[in-house]
Protein 1
Amino acid sequence: MQCPKCRAVLPAAAAECLHCGIILAKYVERHSPVPQQRPQSAASAPAVDTPVSMSAAVGRGAFLLLLVLWTTTLAGGVSAERVNSSFIHLPNLVFHEAGHILFSPFGRFMTVLGGSLTQVLIPLVCAAVFLWQAHDPFGAAVASWWAGENLIDVAPYVNDARDLQLVLLGGRTGAEVEGHDWEYLLNAMGVAHRDHAIAAAVQAAGVLTMIAALVWGAAVVWAQLAALRRSVVDR
């Protein structure tokens, strides 16, 4: 055998080189290339949102169409009657009231703002969980649509900052209970005279968020249907 370092000829059973003094086994171990890790296989990679059947993708598409129709009923001007008559208004209200408690350690302004803020943040948190934890972009799109719907839910509240005619949770108007959240917030910021313009901007932001979420959801469903069609052709 030959020494890997000095190339001297050695006996077959030699443990070290008599010429340069290296321990053969250690030298070989030290200079052997480190095996590279194999790339993660598709089977072990995190699952990306892919329905198991064509019916699942079609069902998602049908649900998306229902959201489109629902969006058209909410996408007009600021309207408390239209928003309050929606069945999702009450679940939104639960998160709104919880937000006041959640933000209460941060002073009065944040306690009051926390109601509206939380009812918008909860859907966004759900969207993040769907996207990064569940690897479900369609679920994330639906949750984003819900965030936009919550902005529309808040808009009439903002719009009523000076009029105080909106019927509140206790069954009385803001005028009867000496104001409400957005009457206080806009007055605290010195912009109460712009309540209608701010409400219109919140409404527009909600509509745009819902439309963007619907486009996202449609793109996901389209990609899933295309992938399923390809898998059928490849069989």
Note: Residues 59 and 143 are 17 Å apart (CA to CA).
Protein 2
Amino acid sequence: MNHKTAVPAFFPVSVLKLIVMSTVTFGIYQLAWFYWNWKYVRQALGRRDVMPFWRALFTYFFCLPLFREIRLCAASRGLTRTYHPGWCALGWVTVAVCWHLPDPYWFAGFLSPLALIPAQKVINDLNADQPAAALNRRFTAWNVVAIAIAGLLVALITIGTIFPEEPGEIPDEVEISPG
């Protein structure tokens, strides 16, 4: 890969925005993160065999290859910041599947963006010298709307999980008298 490319090597986003948007969208932003990074792999690295949509859809199987691509690109550019792709993939998959656990353990799924932080920091280092890779740290109006709506939803779900409603007595039979 050319040291000075016209496009960023990978998806530029601040760590804070990655965490906030991943949390308030219940992980949907992470799927978009994987999609955008695979799209950059296809464009910037010239990997025409990569189909970003399918790799994002089947992220559990393709997160390790993406983490490896990022680290390989960083090594080829001589970056000193690194991480272990296997541990990031294992951490992300393990925590991401927590959404399927019963109450209240599914809350651990909110921690899944933490496994993306090492890779995102390397991505931001890779993109540091790219004029077209301005760090995406600004929250757009749509981001703010999503944060407000999802934040309220997360708060309500949290309250409902921590303080479940006590079931009231429901009569077995109800008599209806005529008239």
Note: The two ends are 85 Å apart (CA to CA).
Protein 3
Amino acid sequence: MAYQFEAKGLGHAVLCGRHDVGDEPFVVVLPDDIIRSQTPASLQLIQKSIETGKSAVAVMEVSKEETQSYGVIDGKLGIAGDFYEVKDLVEKPQPSLAPSRMAVIGRYVLSPSIFPILENLNDGALGEIQLTDALRVLAKEGNIIGVPFEGQRIDTGQPHGFVEANLIYAFDDPMVRAHLLTVIKQLETVR
């Protein structure tokens, strides 16, 4: 287990895990992105990474206005149409400058080749080591794909997403669901 003792960016956090990972590909999961799916999103990425021999990032289509909240890929669909060949990434572009509407979501399968790239990066935005900057290097080398995942993504980094995730999982449990429905009915009568 590795710890990031300073908040120096996602790239720095990944770099902190270098000795634990060694020379094996690894998965990065951002905990504020919950993805409910039959096949875990990370496994979907692992399968495409193995198939192509490239690092992989989860992507989903967002509205043009939402692009300014995400890293966005510049790429084209591969021949099979089930992943994007990523040429570049842009972090939080203005909607008019976004190269696509395919946003990177908090799941990554990375090759250990990312570590030397991260080590040699200059500090990026906010004086941090940005993972997107390292992913751009992989993209320029043709070593990264974007995988549209199957499943429902919930952004728990937003207050409404946090509440939504709790409700969805609460409704999965019959006992909790019954109690929650009672509480909701009580709240409706008070309002």
Note: Residues 88 and 136 are 5 Å apart (CA to CA).
